[in-house]
Each structure stands twice: as structure tokens, then as C-alpha cells.
Write a structure and sequence with these properties.
Blueprint lengths: L1 H16 L9 E6 L3 E10 L2 H19 L15 H7 L1 H9 L7 E6 L4 E2 L7 E10 H10 L9
Antiparallel strand pairs: 1-2, 2-5, 3-5, 4-5
Helix pairs in contact: 3-4
């Protein structure tokens, strides 16, 4: 009986240590004016630079495809399904997001926490970053490339 109990406890401990952990980004609104928006974002990576880059990219993706609660951007700039937008405008979004052209729209990126290991994150580290984005320039770029229509049209 004791042997069976030990095996059960051992199996239970083994199952809980193998659980999958999902890293979730967060984007929080800080402030905005007519040209810029300031967000606090979490980023993940193997080191500080990759984690900051991840936070910046996710901030731009949130503006484009998800919107920012409590801001003027409650609705995303690209007001269609993200997968459809990426598929229909593959060249543009590959260049913007994968080739990191989005960095041209970032005014500043300031870490607000020290980088730290994520428990259960498979060696990933996390950092919070205040990202300021030139919203007017991003919107103009989307309009000029035919991704969105001009405001009011």
C-alpha cells in the first residue's frame, strides 16, 4: 500500500513539473497626444535586447490589429481580421514586422523594469518597456501603402 502511495505521489509531482507555460504579452495605455501614443509593454527574449525588441513589435501589432483600450485607438488601425490583412498584404507586413521597419515609427523605448527570468518560461526572460510610437507617421504609411483608407473617406 505504501509503495503504491509513493508511486502515486511521484507521478503527481512529475506531472505538475511538466506543465506548459505560456508567455503572455501585455500592452497598457499610458498617454497620447495628436501625434504619438505611449504604451507600457512586456517583452520576452533570451536577452535584454531581444526582449525590448519583442515589446516594441508587440506594441505596434496591438495598435495595428487589436486596438488599445482606454485610448482613442479602441479600434485597431487595420480594421479587418489580422490573418486576412497579413495574407492580403504579405510583402508590406513582412517588411514592417519581420524586417523591423516598425522601428522607424518608434520615438523612444525605455525599460521600466530589470530583465528577469520567467518562471516556467523555458529560459526566456521578461522586461517591461515604455514605448512611444509616432502614430501619425504610422497611419500615413498605412494609407500610402493602401492598407487602410484615409480618415473620413
Amino acid at each position: 500500500m505504501k509503495k503504491g502511495l509513493y508511486i502515486f505521489i511521484l507521478l503527481l509531482c512529475g506531472m505538475t513539473s511538466c506543465r506548459t507555460s505560456y508567455l503572455t504579452h501585455s500592452v497598457n495605455y499610458i498617454s497620447e497626444d495628436s501625434q504619438t501614443i505611449n504604451l507600457r509593454c512586456d517583452g520576452f527574449g533570451q536577452n535584454e535586447l531581444t526582449a525590448i525588441t519583442d515589446a516594441e513589435k508587440y506594441a505596434v501589432e496591438a495598435i495595428l490589429f487589436r486596438g488599445i483600450p482606454d485610448s482613442q485607438l479602441k479600434d485597431p488601425l487595420v480594421n479587418i481580421n489580422e490573418n486576412d490583412a497579413r495574407k492580403n498584404n504579405k510583402k508590406y507586413f513582412d517588411e514592417l514586422l519581420e524586417e523591423k521597419r516598425y522601428k522607424t515609427f518608434i520615438i523612444s523605448s525605455i525599460p521600466t523594469t530589470k530583465i528577469h527570468h520567467v518562471k516556467g518560461g523555458g529560459g526566456q526572460k521578461s522586461i517591461s518597456v515604455d514605448v512611444s510610437i509616432n502614430l501619425r507617421a504610422l497611419r500615413t504609411d498605412l494609407e500610402q501603402n493602401g492598407i487602410i483608407r484615409k480618415f473620413g473617406l
